[in-house]
Amino acid sequence: MKNLGISLFAIAVLVTVSVGATSAGWSGLLTIVIPYAALAVFLIGFVTRVFRWTKSPVPFRIPATCGQQASLPWIRRNPLDCPSSLAGVIGRMFMEVFLFRSLFRNTEMEIAGQRPVYGSAKWLWFFGLLFHWSLLIIVVRHLRFFLEPIAAWVNTLAAIDGFFEIGSPTLYLTDAALLAGLTFLFFRRAVAPRLRYISLVTDYFALLLIMGVATTGLLMRHFFPADLLAVKNLALGWVTFAPTIPKGVGPVFSIHLLFVCALLAWFPFSKLMHMGGVFLSPTRNLANDNRMNRHVNPWNAPVKVHTYEEYEDEFRDKMKLAGLPLEKE
Amino acid sequence: MKLYNGGKIIAGMVAFLIAVTFPFWYGRGKTVSPPDLKLDTPTIEQLKEKRCVEPAAYMRASHMKLLVAWREGAVREGIRSYTATDGRAFQVSLTGTCLGCHSNKDKFCNRCHDYTGSKPACWSCHIIPEEVR
């Protein structure tokens, strides 16, 4: 509970800072300085962290597979779950990144009487997928504030998202799906005792922060309309490097913006880096071709060896005199 | 310093940076002026006192709320008359009252709506005067 408390406190601090800075007349700090700084921290931090991973030696192929590897021709193999080629790896990575295939195999274990019983557990996969896809679509939809003229595909995406035209303004389905996903992910941690035991401040903070972004966004869309004209002027100002301080966009927008900036700036230092890390998962992105190619351990110390060829070169004359068989005369 | 799969990872990072900074590339060298709303329709020109239903600041911020309230009052409860805060009475009608003055939808409504990517659902039921279908 302490971890959850600290996360809630951090969120409250962010809200206070936003409201305080607005009322103190530091709108320039909040709408220009902090967003640029947060974006810079995000970009530089992200690239630096991935670059640091690049310096870690890639381990030996880990055949942590879920299918039969390529073997004798009459043994049916599983090219997707145990790929031995680049195309297979691309297929497996695609399934992993876009469909969370390894989460789909999530199981849960219960003790029934005296013995463990394993069952399928798809809820985490389902809500995880729902959350991630919704977040991606929402981020892409926000391009309408950053592009002028708005690219047609952004409008098309928004039209599909608001297809059912529920209410006015239209409820975007991804907004509802995002909240559903976040709620599940949050209560999974907060309620299930085993998960609460292993949940840290960062786990709660990530969920609460994104929840805060979504809630303030929905409030602005459906209850306290933000001045979209001012918002778009501000966003276009950022991307053309000529930002102006908006007047009267409202406290909800300020909180929304500060939440997003906090998320961006914190991203490279947090577990959210799984966004980049998923592409570098050794058990997913390495083909299981141990039986076809020789892989040398990259951190092997250099070993001084004396091969038979060199041995024979060194003692050829003596061996000849002694009448020993030679590979090369 | 040895990099492992450095080429592939750096290529991925470059692609990532380009994608994330896409709005900056899109807006490069552009100066966008905010939408220019035209209030010069013949009806507005003839008005002695150029006032909308409610004060301009309120209309700018909350016209959508007012229109939704009009719609729901008219359709569900049959309220066809609206008394403004200054006592003037208006007929609840998008086509008659709003577009009566703002007959230039393309140069008024659409300017901001297109700019901010707002897609109000007004025109899936209401007709636009003088627009040929």
Overview of this protein structure:
The complex is a heterodimer of chains A (329) and B (133). Helix content of chain A is 59%, strand content 4%. Chain A has 329 residues and is mainly α. Chain A has a domain at 2-66 and 129-286: Up-down Bundle (Fumarate Reductase Cytochrome B subunit), CATH 1.20.950.20. In chain A, strand 1 and strand 2 form a beta hairpin. The longest helix of chain A is centred in the N-terminal third of the chain and has 28 residues, at 27-54. The N and C termini of chain A lie far apart (80 Å). The mean pLDDT of chain A is 91. Chain B is mainly α and 133 residues long. Chain B has one domain. Chain B has helices at 6-20, 22-26, 42-46, 56-77, 94-101, 109-116, and strands spanning 81-83, 89-91. Chain A binds chain B through residues 43, 46-47, 50-51, 53-58, 143-151, 154-155, 158-159, 162, 165, 168-170, 225, 227-229, 231-233, 235-236, 239-240, 242, 276, 279-280, 298, and chain B through 1-6, 9-10, 12-13, 16-17, 20-24, 26-28, 30-32, 34-35, 60-62, 64-65, 68, 71, 112, 114-121.
Structural class of chain A: mainly alpha
Broad shape of chain A: elongated
Find the CATH superfamily of one domain in chain A: Transmembrane di-heme cytochromes, Chain C
Largest interface: A-B, 45 and 41 residues
Helix content of chain B: 40-55%
Largest sheet of chain A: 2 strands, antiparallel
What fraction strand of chain A? under 5%
Tell me the strand order in the biggest sheet of chain A.
1-2
Secondary structure layout plus pairing:
The complex is a heterodimer of chains A (329) and B (133).
Chain A: H1 2-23, H2 27-54, H3 86-99, H4 101-104, E1 107-112, E2 115-120, H5 123-141, H6 152-161, H7 173-191, H8 193-198, H9 201-222, H10 228-239, H11 251-266, H12 274-277, H13 282-285, H14 308-321
Antiparallel strand pairs in A: 1-2
Helix pairs in contact in A: 1-9, 1-11, 2-11, 5-7, 7-9, 9-11
Chain B: H1 6-20, H2 22-26, H3 42-46, H4 56-77, E1 81-83, E2 89-91, H5 94-101, H6 109-116
Antiparallel strand pairs in B: 1-2
